[in-house]
Amino acid sequence: MIPVGFDYARPDSVDGALALLAEHGEDATVMAGGHSLLPVMKLRLAAPELIVDIGRLRELNYIRVDGDEVAIGAGTRHHDVETSELLATEVPLLPAVARTVGDPQVRHRGTLGGSLAHGDPASDLPAAVLALDATIVLRSPRGERSVPATEFWTGVFTTAKEPDELIVEIRVPRTGTAGWAYEKFTRRANDWAIVAVAVVDGRVGLVNMGSTPLRASATEAALAEGKSIADAAALADEGTEPPTDTAGTPDYRRNLARVLTRRALETAAGR
Amino acid sequence: MSIMGTRVVRVEDPVFLTRGATYTDDLTDERLTGALHLTLVRSPIAHATITSIDVEAAREAPGVVAVLTGADIDLEAPLLFAGAPKQMVRPWLATERVRFVGEPVAAVLTEERYQGPDAAELVDVDYEPLPAVVDVREALKDENLLFPDAGTNTCSVYNKEDPDPDFFADCEVVVTREIINQRVAAASLETRAASAAWGDDGRCTLFVSNQNAQGARDEVAGWLGVDASQIHVILPDVGGGFGAKIGADPEFALVAWLARHTGRPVRWSESRSENMTGMVQGRDQRQTITIGGSRDGRVKAYRLDVIADAGAYPRLGVFLPVFTRMMAPGTYDIEKVDSRATVVVTNTTSTAAYRGAGRPEATSAIERAMDLFAAEIGMDPAEIRKINVVAPEKFPFTTKGGVEYDSGEYAKAIDLALEASDYATLREVQKARRERGDAKQIGIGVSSYVEITGGGAFAENASLEVHADGTALVWTGTSPHGQGHATAWAMLASEQLGIPVDKITVRHGDTDHVPRGGGTMGSRSLQTGGVAVHQASLELIDLAKARAAEILEASVEDLEVDTANAAIVVRGAPGSPTVSFAQLAEREELKVQTVFDGKKATFPFGSHVAVVEVDTETGKVTVERIWAVDDAGPVLNPLLCEGQRHGGIAQGIAQALLEEVVFDPDGQPLTATFADYGFPSAAELPSFDLVTMETPTPINPLGFKGIGEAGTIGSAPAVQSAVVDALSHLGIRHIDMPTTPLRVWEAIQDAVKEDG
Known about the structure:
The structure holds 2 protein chains of 2 kinds. By secondary structure, chain A is of the alpha+beta class. Chain A folds into 3 domains: 47 residues, Uridine Diphospho-n-acetylenolpyruvylglucosamine Reductase, domain 2, CATH 3.30.43; 116 residues, Uridine Diphospho-n-acetylenolpyruvylglucosamine Reductase, domain 3, CATH 3.30.465; 89 residues, CO dehydrogenase flavoprotein, C-terminal domain (Enolase-like, domain 1, 2-Layer Sandwich). In chain A, 34% of the residues lie in helices and 24% in strands. Chain A contains 12 helices and 14 strands. In chain A, the strands form 4 sheets. In chain A, strands 4-5-10-6-7 form a 5-stranded antiparallel β-sheet. Chain A has a 4-stranded antiparallel β-sheet with strand order 11-12-13-14, with helices on both faces. Chain A has a 3-stranded parallel β-sheet with strand order 1-3-2, covered by helices on one side. In chain B, β23 and β24 form a beta hairpin. Chain B starts with 12 loop residues before the first helix and ends with a helix. By secondary structure, chain B is an alpha+beta fold. In chain B, strands 3-5-1-12-9-10-11 form a 7-stranded mixed β-sheet, with helices on both faces. Chain B has a 5-stranded mixed β-sheet with strand order 7-15-14-13-8. The chains are: A alpha+beta, B alpha+beta.
């Protein structure tokens, strides 16, 4: 469990980090909390030549209201999302989802931007951000651009982020009192989800039902047409390609998606 | 006031909770100064021929002192289980063929630890893959042989007689079923580790993480071809064993050999990934159970056929079906019992002991059989058990397994568990949920069990010395790694001598101080090593009295111990001169060395009732409550005893619900990290309801039986049974362990399909 040797840099600003990324390109890997990156490095499944540690950049750690949205710095820790009073009022889904990530140690290290950039389809927060119709703000020496969450994940562990780009902010619509719920199904408390479903304001995000976080579009359309929760939830697995592993077959995951979506929609309707 | 049966807090804990333990890998012992670090190149393929190994590039890597292959090692490859075919030896480092993922192929020695994995990656091994044998039935076919020279994959057969075709002829009802007692991993939080240094005196000091210093010494000495007196084994703190650290690992001897070969101390500590493929695993039996009897619930005949998986190289796992056969009838008085077992090698990690080691496999089998029989005749599972258990007046009871059960009241244990759980009410709740058609159903499982403790070495030694400052030192041949012997053994000496527990030090795990010892395994420690400390205390009192008689000018018969003052006094003569143990020690060494031999094993027993909730839409099982009657005779320290029961119950629930080592058809391990392997956390477990019952054994003066494994043996079948019971209204009679959400959901789908 000793990683391949690597160089390490800890720039003191976002600009400094961007300069390093521009210089080293694909040889550099950004580290924030390190709780996804370091395990794969220790297993020697990843061997970056340079680690750019942005974990201490305070300028990336904020949660504030900005018009109709809440702007969250990419370096905001899961623990800060989980305990944010502002988010509890403005986007209550997000703290509830953050609370289910890993264990307290993980939540004190891991960051929202890190989780989105890692792009693990079994992670909780990407599907929540997707269901929230959030926007991901990327910056590089070339400038800044905003990518809708619906276009951000392109495959397993791959995203629309270019090697010289850094996620700097996540902009989340203020959903306020709209109904929401998160149904996460695991074998054990701290496990990754076998399947999970995030519901907010009639939108449905699916965890671990394909190579990327997904929206249950058929369910959303059915709900918009006024179908019952049961009927809409029965469509939750449409268009998904769930993976196979020791915890579940595709059929099993499809069933979970339908059941959890129904339960999440019922909870959301009751809020 | 007696200290026996009181909740003395663990004297071990302050250090663990503050400074932390010192494991083998933490040692700063000066003998290890300048040590090289060993990194093993391990096979990524389950079954292959090695066509070449190129170590040149690795030898040039920074910090590398040596890279060795099997060709460099001048030791005979060891047979790790004496009864296995002699061709099934395990090479120190594979040279011609690899037989499981994780098998060592080359040894890299570096100045610094971090240099090892980089250099190991440069060792270039060419493998020509062979078909992997993963399934035991496939192994039995002998089409693909792991050891072509042996001519078979079978490494042991117990009971070669053909089954009697008329065995169940007089039974009104016969039920048969194949079930799986799955493979599990001990997953001790401290992985395996060894460090070796040879002194100028030609002796090797070997620090290892193990459950038995003396056993490890003898095995390593044998493999190295040196006298046991040349090896000095020291056990630092051991972070969990669960049976997997019984006996030496070949890596221990390799470390010692490399230290001798290079003339420098060598340290080795494996990674978690290595541990999950390299350390021995447990269970793994495919069982066919057949049970017959009459419709009034009387079981007349029971047959258990086992195919056990030894893994790639036969180890202790080959022996464990002996225990399974021995305990086949469990707590039941069955007229006819028949069993046989075949053990085969496969391209997987070797198997050996794991909490219960052969007995849980027997218990789970007979308990499933009882449930299946009860379901077939429509009888309550608690009732059928009470009808068939051995009656209390029959003890000592010789079973059809050929074992003599020492003492027990099995029906009473069941009654206590039923009473504590308010069984009748639980059935009412279940009925109501079924009538409502709730998505979440509950199931109730009842187990009755008996097991063997102290079934290996019946004798254990202890030495006890009192010092002039009033302190005492105990050396024991047991090998605590979490069990609390430092507390328990001090209590036993304190009870007799009156020396306070905090002035008694208990030490273990150093073969120069304790040359003989059986270690800690098979729940043997209290009934052997603990009783030895009790016996040593009595012998020390005799010695003290003999010496005090002269000083006090009284006859030995008139002397007694004043435990309030840790002194010898004249009986019935208050105010007359006394002499303390400390004063006696000041004059002359006050020390005894003794061996207690119980000559037999004991048979603790009990009964568990588990209630689970099953979410029929997702298959998720939640254990709601578990009531456990675990009778291991008188309890020395309830805190320690409850700790053993809690850990044991948790481990049994884990097997029932979550844990399973899985290999794919190519022999690739799919559960080699803690993210994939399903051991539970506190969040998956309820609080446990422990019910007290104490039936002493006649085989030792304190009546003690073992408690280390009982919880595991009782809880797994109770929980598995509860899961099946929750779904019995769908016609489901059995679900193999672990009853994961996926497996439970699939069973429901199949049942609904059949019904439709």
